[in-house]
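== Fold encoding ==
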Amino acid sequence: MPYIDRDLKNRILQFSKEYVCLLVSGPRQVGKTTLLRHLDPKRAYVTLDDLEERRLARTEPSTFLSLHPAPVLIDEVQYAPELFSYLKIAVDNGAEPGAYWLTGSQAFHLMELAQESLAERTALLHLPSLSQHEIYGSGDTVLFSTELADLRRREPCGTPTDLSGIYERIWRGSMPGFVSGKFSDREMFYSSYVSTYIDRDVSEMMNRVDKLRFHDFIRAAACRVGQMLNVHSIASDVGISDKTAKNWLRILEASDIVFYLRPYTNKLLKRTVKQAKMYFFDTGLVAYLTAYLTPEILAKGALSGAILENYVVSEIRKTFYNTGRTGNLWYYRDKDQNEVDMLIEQNGHIYPIEIKRTSNPGSELVKAFEILDKGPLPRGNGAIICTREKLTAVDAQNFVVPVWMI
């Protein structure tokens, strides 16, 4: 089974020379531990999935650290928040850079713990599921940008494909266990993933959750990827209260199953909507939850446009994470129905992106970009990301970018 090289590795090695603690968060089974153990196979390793180790870390954190001296990799550290105060003591006592590598699958909670106890002592990185570049590309990863020079730089790093190839990538998803060939049965892989997620993460974050209904809830959410969030609609489908639906959505977000694009707004852009748009971290999971059995059926199905948008937004987001950045990513929609699928705020500019399931986009698709000129930030180059196979342009300020180039 081949090891898939990860784009984040250079940032991990760089920051490990500068910070005593390195914390890598991300969804379950995206390869956090595999990556870190590959980068330093001689480093001591302990996982808090081991209940005895977890008990010791929680009740006797000083003894735990004495039994597992640096340099050490501590896996699933969110299970023992008591460790962070003792890690701070170790840092204050002169621990060397790279002494503690930590992983966890509850990003928000982990960042809060690290910032409270280890501010300015910890490098916080996020490992997403495999990127398109990691699976199908070559060379070094490049932060996505709509500047022509940057598009030219990334063009030779991708592997061109057509519409059917794009939907094959979307349907297969980005989970290392399946993509690498470790597990061959896709249905069984995703079924086990969802069951394990509900049995472990959800049950630990919420007492007495109705597991069957929560499974239905995830499916209902998956049917709405790329849409503005309507909590009441999801709640009604599942037969739960709006309050419960909000709580369950917080769990999905906290464990990195879903993420949101927030609406871009300011005082100069009035009448903008307030709802966020929801996406899943892995389109393979969406295809499984919505029961699309083949990529061909998915490409023709009702969800084909929305799941393509989910794929593109997720892949652009990954280029930020994999270069050690977070990125200011938004979308725009106002009450006059003007909409831009995605905005990247960077370098004092706003860069608009439209995502379409077409190979021949027209100039009318960039018309909505002009509404952004009323805002405070100058508008940078825009892009239509679509299923066209070659890079081209609508005009000098707006490019047509193939999905395979992200």
User: Anything to note?
Assistant: DSSP finds 17 helices and 13 strands in the chain. Residues 32 and 127 are 7 Å apart (CA to CA).
